[in-house]
Design goal:
Blueprint lengths: L5 E7 L6 H9 L7 E7 L5 H5 L7 E5 L4 H11 L4 E4 L5 E2 L3 H11 L3 E12 L2 E4 L2 H4 L10 H6 L9 E3 L1 H6 L10 H12 L1 E13 L13 E2 L2 E2 H12 L3 H5 L1 H21 L3 H14 L4 H9 L4 H31 L1
Parallel strand pairs: 1-2, 1-4, 2-3, 6-9
Antiparallel strand pairs: 4-8, 5-9, 6-7, 6-8, 10-11
Length: 332
């Protein structure tokens, strides 16, 4: 039976303005971790100075920049506890995060990993009080490889995972600079049971310098990172096609292409959006919305701007009517 010791691993790269708050959120836990390991992946900002006041309470390791998965792997290698909890250097834990998840693991020893809901925020305050509620999703548990292959369900900062998983399956794929965490959780989900604490235990920060900003970083050789990860999983586990359903996988891949196309479109990169939409309709040829979106990319910029303005006006009117109706229902 695994002892319930836990190491917090914080990979950080140029998170100088945020890393102190991240460490403070760990030190404020009602159940403190047995150790805190900060892996600085070659930061060139004030990260080292921001960490300095905590050196008597954490283990700080600096390495040349190799990417987030390499930093996580280094943290796994140097940490010593039976369980590892990851936190990115710009996010925060709520105070009882570790307490609740370790209690869950104590009661569900068969689980190799436990995750949770999370909320999102920026400099102006809370964006989503619950990502689960925003996307109207449930938090599955047990053998959940199929559920997880259909869509990413949880973030790395919500996870507490048993060290043995990495001994058996290897570490994060260092060739995947984006999506390596999703790929790792899929490998774990294929082999082990996973548990969930149905509460937002992570505060996920949005800010301009975050590593997942921009369209370029979300692409791998011209392909959306989710498509790369899903394709890799299907090569490793060909039986997953029958388990998930071929049509479901085609639509799942199509959605990844279409979602990335929207990012390009919002950035006025219409040629890139068009290319991604062609890949989407190749996977899901009977989706009329993708074809309509594809046609939109051929409009002149002035026409696109006018269309966006019209859409915002209509959306505002619809929301106003919905609020009015909601008020009438409340009075009734």
């Amino acid at each position: 039976m695994h002892p319930l010791t836990v190491s917090t691993v914080i990979p950080v790269y140029n998170n100088g303005p945020y890393i102190a708050a991240a460490i403070d959120s760990v030190l404020a836990q009602t159940r403190l971790p047995d150790e805190i390991v900060v892996i600085d992946d070659g930061s060139t900002d004030e990260t080292a100075a921001a960490v300095r006041p905590y050196l008597n309470r954490i283990r700080y390791i600096y390495q040349e920049n190799r990417g987030e998965p390499a930093a996580r792997n280094r943290g796994i290698q140097v940490s010593t506890s039976a369980y590892i909890a990851f936190l990115d250097g710009d996010d925060l834990w709520v105070p009882n995060k570790l307490e609740l998840q370790l209690e869950y693991l104590k009661q569900h020893r068969v689980c190799a990993l436990v995750y949770s809901d999370m909320n999102t925020f920026d400099e102006n305050g809370t964006i989503d009080a619950s990502v689960k509620e925003r996307f109207k999703m449930q938090l599955p548990s047990g053998r959940m490889f199929v559920d997880l292959l259909k869509r990413p369900i949880f973030g790395s900062g919500t996870v507490v995972v048993r060290r043995d998983c990495f001994k058996q399956l290897g570490g994060f794929d260092e060739e995947l600079l984006v999506g390596s965490d999703y790929e790792m959780w899929l490998r774990i989900a294929r082999e082990f049971e996973i548990g969930a604490v149905d509460r937002p235990l992570l505060k996920y920060r949005y800010h301009p310098a975050m590593s997942t900003c921009g369209t370029g970083v979300k692409m791998c050789n011209g392909v959306p990172w989710e498509v790369v990860v899903v394709t890799k999983m299907l090569k490793l586990h060909p039986n997953a096609v029958a388990e998930v359903g071929e049509h479901v996988l085609h639509r799942r891949i199509a959605k990844s292409y279409a979602d990335m196309a929207r990012r390009y479109f919002r950035g006025n990169e219409y040629k890139g959006a068009r290319r991604l939409l062609l890949a989407a309709v190749k996977q899901w040829p009977l989706n009329p919305r993708y074809w309509a979106f594809y046609a939109t990319t051929f409009l002149r910029p002035s026409q696109i701007t006018a269309g966006r303005s019209f859409y915002r006006q209509i959306r505002a009117q619809i929301m106003s009517v919905e609020r009015s109706l909601s008020g009438l229902d409340a009075k009734g």
